[in-house]
Write a structure and sequence with these properties.
Glycosyltransferase; two-stranded antiparallel ribbon; 11 helices; mainly alpha
């Protein structure tokens, strides 16, 4: 990730392993990058000077990205001009995720204070999210922010609101053969399950946890084949009753699967979920349909697994997804190998 970052932020895309400056920056990637470097400081090396510098850079980007109404720009060109007035709901949800994590886990008190203030400004617009993924991203970040007593009451209210949105979608679309939130599985699927588990743990809502576990178990049945994780590909997705896409597999799916499995472990204590986290992480290192590693020795990650093999480009989303998964696994005990 260091190779993709400059004094502004992390550059979105790469040609091979060379940053493609023409693609500029985005709040989506910078938010994820902030969480990644904070996890490194928290779980790997609290004295890492490079991670500390990058955290400061990424936080400065997010501070500049936030509008007066609490919402965020998403795209900035390489000349540091914002290209949109308001970013996508996904990018706003990921910004909330980063701020919620940083408000509790950032190593500097000044960073935690700033993130707390920025987070409070996001709560009202976030209550108007219309789609499940931004709501899920918000829950994941806010579940961390509940550790700050000064944020707990308003944050808890938004966690409840977003969890109720996911539960309503589940009731609308699920039946015995399709216990899912939508009429098709698309991208970042495991984040929906993780969010409900995290919300249920934060709120003391056993029904919320149960639905999160049920949907995650269904996702596992769809995407785990023997000892391989086979995420839904983005070239066709998986419509209910139709064929599922098996290639154009994306690294963010493996990272999401790791985190959802760890959330399920936190809720149940079952080593099966620790083993699933390791299995999903193995996707990056060749435990996939082609037996092809996507993680590079440089620390970067291929942009996806195609039918002919891994992409040769190592962009920001992919590399950050790999790092998030690696730090999450490193922070946990080694599982008992049990996927039954």
């Amino acid at each position: 990730m260091t190779a993709l970052s400059d004094d502004c932020a992390v550059i979105q895309h790469a040609i091979e392993d060379v940053p493609n400056r023409s693609t500029g920056y985005c709040t989506d990637d910078v938010s994820r990058a902030l969480v990644a470097v904070l996890m490194r400081l928290q779980f790997v090396d609290r004295e890492d000077a490079t991670a500390t510098r990058l955290a400061n850079t990424y936080l400065a980007f997010l501070f500049d990205a936030q509008n007066s109404d609490g919402r965020f720009h998403n795209f900035m060109d390489y000349d540091r001009a914002w290209l949109d007035a308001i970013g996508t709901q996904d990018s706003n949800g990921r910004a909330i995720w980063a701020l919620g994590y940083a408000a509790t886990h950032a190593p500097r008190e000044s960073w935690r204070r700033l993130c707390g203030r920025m987070l409070l400004r996001t709560l009202e617009p976030a209550a108007h999210f219309e789609y499940p993924r931004p709501a899920a991203y918000a829950i994941i970040g806010l579940s961390h922010a509940l550790g700050d007593a000064t944020l707990a009451r308003p944050v808890r209210t938004l966690v409840r609101h977003c969890a109720d949105m996911l539960l309503a979608l589940y009731r609308e679309h699920a039946d015995g053969g399709w216990p899912w939130f939508e009429p098709q599985m698309t991208y970042d699927n495991a984040r929906l399950c993780e969010a409900l588990v995290r919300a249920g743990l934060a709120l003391g809502d056993a029904g919320c946890v149960e639905t999160g576990i049920r949907t995650f178990d269904f996702l596992t049945k769809v995407t785990v084949e023997g000892d391989l994780f086979v995420p839904i590909g983005n070239a066709g997705w998986y419509p209910r009753g139709g064929a599922r896409a098996r290639f154009a597999q994306q690294p963010l799916e493996a990272a999401a699967m790791v985190d959802a499995a760890l959330a399920a472990f936190d809720a149940t204590g079952s080593n099966r979920y620790l083993a699933l986290a390791q299995l999903a992480f193995g996707w990056f290192h060749g435990q996939n349909l082609l037996g092809a590693p996507l993680a590079a020795e440089s620390g970067g990650c291929s942009d996806g697994l195609e039918e002919h093999g891994p992409s040769t480009n190592l962009g920001a989303e992919s590399t950050i997804s790999y790092l998030l998964a690696a730090y999450a696994v490193a922070a946990r005990p080694t599982p008992v190998p049990d996927l039954t």
